[in-house]
Amino acid sequence: MKQFDLLVSEQLKTMDQLLDLQTELERYKSLEYLRGRERDEESLRELRVEIQKRQQELHLLHQTFEQQTRQVIESFQQEKSYT
């Protein structure tokens, strides 16, 4: 079960990163809305660049999480077959 536990631990860390990044992305989107209402075009452009970066990071983290999920499942099945 050592491998399984290690994989689950890594996946939990990734999940924390996902949650933090989603929170940060929501904050940026709120700021984007406010800047749009204020018609602050320069700040709006900068925010949109940051939002795009965070969305790309989020996409990559989702892919990592999915890969980790497959690894956890495979590890569990292997461990189960040994017992």
From TrEMBL:
Residues 37-64 form a coiled coil. The keyword Coiled coil applies. Keywords: Coiled coil. It comes from the Bacteria. This is YgaB family protein. The lineage of its organism: Bacteria, Bacillati, Bacillota, Bacilli, Bacillales.
